[in-house]
């Protein structure tokens, strides 16, 4: 399959490499920044372009891997071609594309990418949506070429997925950060906490998180919780976070196990 | 070294195995429950006892691996021996032991243990505190026999460590659980989120969490945050958690990077 990539950021970089490794041909890489386009194009053996006017119709699929806000603005450059177009965003609906492009789809990798960190794409969940059977099938086949975990996900579900990821990943990272700050304030290194964080993430690989919850809240250990709130009295915002999350853990525990 | 273990739960089980593997001899395992004492004693080649009156003074160290509440009650059974005693709790101060036992210490493994899951003790941070130089040295040597990560931590620091672990691990697990519930409500499997959770935990192995924060809050993406709050309107408690954590991420980001 011939694929052209619009964008040269993290998603564009990792996706193009995965396509190429799966035997597909990357025709063009477009970026507003020629240097950035050229770098990625070089790695995947494609032509680099920085002018939308020279984007070639000699391809089977356009992958839009650009910022959410930029997607709508880019549609006019592609809609005349009558070639399938898929965006890679978790938050943009299919309709934003399909109103202008009949063969529109979504090709959303549910993973966080850094340019310098290798990702095994076979483990990345690929969320697919198509405006019609044909494009859905094209995207599903392509997804299976690079990943073992392909899901058909509606635009409404994709929104929920994104929200769930904010809780389970973005907020989680912030809790790591709070832990780091608390340790630093008492002259301790975040290093001490890293193995416990790794084990916490590892534990849920085979379990539902609600069933492996530990800590003072799930034991309803009032004394420890009060002591913790006392320690946080100079940081009322952390007290609020502590209280809200503890209450939610207790509520959840009762919901799953009944009040004893 | 001859070591006797008071307790037969997760910490007792993993610690005794680690001591034995490091070449130490486990003399006795005490538990109120004889079956439980016998099972662990069998695995580590020790004698099982369920009566405090038959605890033998023929040992070099007692390790108390029992519930926090039970520690104070157990002291009378050991204080006549004049043998070093260390507890393994994150929350109990050294003083609770050292008031009654001169050679008192703390031997706290900062990790979450499950009986059925193997733990590589060499990676477990060991937090050591002693009432005097001699016991501190004994515990530090013992800790180095089983772990590569040994820290001298005061009782006050240990409390902070425990609080930081509640944020970075217990609360984190609850955020996983919220993610699972959100997906379930929209007919999606938690399986989809697992790779992203794994990568989020993996990312901070080499970085300070504040420097790798992602998501709508750190981008100050008001539109996405409003859309998320809208989706949660039937779950006001989750709205509160979302708002509080997002505010804290924004505040933290400004603190680290300045307001632009």
TrEMBL record, chains A, B:
<dbReference type="InterPro" id="IPR018931">
    <property type="entry name" value="DUF2520"/>
</dbReference>
<dbReference type="InterPro" id="IPR037108">
    <property type="entry name" value="TM1727-like_C_sf"/>
</dbReference>
<dbReference type="Pfam" id="PF10728">
    <property type="entry name" value="DUF2520"/>
</dbReference>
<dbReference type="InterPro" id="IPR036291">
    <property type="entry name" value="NAD(P)-bd_dom_sf"/>
</dbReference>
<dbReference type="InterPro" id="IPR028939">
    <property type="entry name" value="P5C_Rdtase_cat_N"/>
</dbReference>
<feature type="domain" description="DUF2520">
    <location>
        <begin position="124"/>
        <end position="248"/>
    </location>
</feature>
<dbReference type="InterPro" id="IPR008927">
    <property type="entry name" value="6-PGluconate_DH-like_C_sf"/>
</dbReference>
<feature type="domain" description="Pyrroline-5-carboxylate reductase catalytic N-terminal">
    <location>
        <begin position="2"/>
        <end position="77"/>
    </location>
</feature>
<dbReference type="Pfam" id="PF03807">
    <property type="entry name" value="F420_oxidored"/>
</dbReference>
<protein>
    <submittedName>
        <fullName>DUF2520 domain-containing protein</fullName>
    </submittedName>
</protein>
């Amino acid at each position: 399959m011939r694929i052209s990539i619009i964008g040269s950021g993290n998603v564009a970089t990792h996706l193009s490499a995965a396509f190429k490794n799966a035997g597909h041909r990357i025709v063009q890489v477009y970026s507003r920044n020629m240097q950035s386009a050229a770098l990625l194009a070089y790695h995947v053996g494609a032509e680099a372009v920085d002018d939308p006017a020279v984007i070639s119709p000699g391809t089977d699929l356009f992958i839009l891997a650009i910022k959410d806000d930029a997607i709508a603005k880019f549609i006019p450059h592609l809609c005349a071609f009558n070639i399938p177009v898929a965006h890679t965003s978790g938050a943009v609906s299919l309709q934003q594309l399909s109103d202008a492009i009949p063969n529109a789809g979504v090709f959303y990798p549910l993973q966080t990418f850094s340019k310098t960190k290798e990702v095994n794409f076979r483990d990345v969940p690929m969320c697919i949506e198509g405006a019609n059977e044909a494009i859905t099938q094209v995207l599903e086949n392509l997804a299976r070429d690079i990943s073992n975990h392909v899901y058909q996900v509606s635009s409404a579900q994709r929104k929920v997925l994104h929200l769930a990821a904010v809780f389970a990943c973005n907020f989680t990272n912030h809790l790591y950060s709070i832990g780091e700050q608390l340790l630093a304030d008492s002259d301790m290194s975040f290093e001490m906490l890293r193995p416990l964080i790794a084990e916490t993430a590892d534990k849920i690989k085979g379990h539902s998180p609600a069933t492996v919850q530990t800590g003072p809240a799930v034991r309803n250990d009032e004394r420890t919780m009060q002591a913790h709130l006392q320690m946080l009295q100079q940081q009322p915002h952390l007290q609020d976070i502590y209280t809200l999350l503890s209450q939610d853990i207790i509520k959840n525990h009762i919901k799953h196990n009944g009040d004893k």
